[in-house]
Design goal:
The chain is an alpha+beta fold and 306 residues long. The chain is built from 13 helices and four strands. Belongs to the TFS-II family.
């Protein structure tokens, strides 16, 4: 292990400890600024130490200053990793980038056009609630297919919602998710279109902000994201509510129900059929007539009388 990696691990542990102990915001921001200023990690170091995940989670912190500082760290690290990749690519014979794609994958679908990198990686400063590729002035025409380009746009809109990531960062992630869906669902199939629509809808749920953050940070890879079930895509809060509702329904199902009687003398005023089930209950004082609750078995109409 290199001294740089040991230094990074030490700082990440300190940051994790500060979070766990709920240290003052100033302390956490100071640690983040130190990571931004003093650390120049490689992609391997970030993967081994999981530093990107730890810092990435802080981008959605309730304290905006902490979130901003975390965004700046992630942006700088991403730029460093991209420079590292470009340097490795240009080290191939003749100065041409290495091509790791297999012939089969190239034949299956033309590779999307590369996203032009900008010199600035500043966090988005506009209204994140209304972000779209149109307002961000992003070119979503990355393939030769209008359907695929539209899906890239839909995914961009979902990932950009409440995100402060730079435009090109969101576009790169949207393209990666679309490519994973295209491969998983065998092209521009109905399943592919429905999955993209489902992912967008879940990204736009107000109480499900962690989903978008986890996709953008890499905690959820594009390949995993496109095969997640509807329940897995839900927020933890929604899963808890669903579990409570299911438990409540099970309890209700176990309560003995009053048996209904069928009458051939009662007539439904709606469909005029004499197929009426009824139950009786004492809803008023004991010396008052019982209330009869009726349901037409033909048309479903409900009524009551005393």
């Amino acid at each position: 292990m290199s001294s740089q990696q040991r230094e990074l691990e030490s700082r990440i542990k300190a940051l994790h400890k500060a979070q766990a102990e709920k240290s003052p915001a100033a302390s956490i921001i100071s640690l983040l600024e130190g990571l931004k200023k003093d650390v120049r990690p490689t992609e391997e170091m970030l993967r081994t130490t999981k530093a990107g995940l730890v810092v990435g989670k802080l981008r959605g912190h309730t304290n905006k200053d902490i979130g901003k500082a975390a965004n700046e760290v992630v942006a700088k690290w991403r730029k460093i990793v991209e420079e590292e990749k470009r340097a490795k690519g240009l080290s191939a014979p003749g100065g041409r980038p290495r091509d790791s794609a297999s012939p089969a994958s190239k034949a299956a679908s033309p590779a999307p056009k590369p996203v032009p990198t900008t010199s600035s990686k500043k966090a988005y400063e506009g209204n994140t609630e209304t972000r779209k590729f149109t307002t961000d002035k992003v070119d979503i025409k990355r393939t030769d297919s209008q359907i695929r380009n539209n899906c890239i746009g839909v995914l961009y809109n979902g990932l950009a919602y409440r995100s402060t990531e730079p435009e090109d960062t969101v576009l790169i992630k949207a393209m990666a998710v679309e490519a994973a869906a295209f491969k998983t669902y065998k092209g521009e199939t109905q399943a592919y279109k429905e999955k993209v629509r489902s992912l967008f809808q879940n990204l736009k749920v107000k109480n499900n902000a962690d989903l978008g953050r986890n996709v953008m940070s890499g905690a959820i890879t594009p390949e995993k994201f496109v095969v997640m079930t509807s329940k897995q895509l839900q927020s933890a809060e929604q899963r808890k509510l669903d579990a409570e509702l299911e438990e409540e329904n099970m309890k209700k199902a176990q309560v003995p129900m009053v048996e209904k009687s069928i009458s051939d003398s009662l007539e439904c005023s709606g469909c005029k059929k004499k197929m009426v089930s009824y139950t009786q209950a004492q809803t008023r004082s004991a010396d008052e007539p019982m209330t009869t609750f009726c349901e037409c078995m033909n048309c479903g109409k409900h009524w009551k009388f005393s």
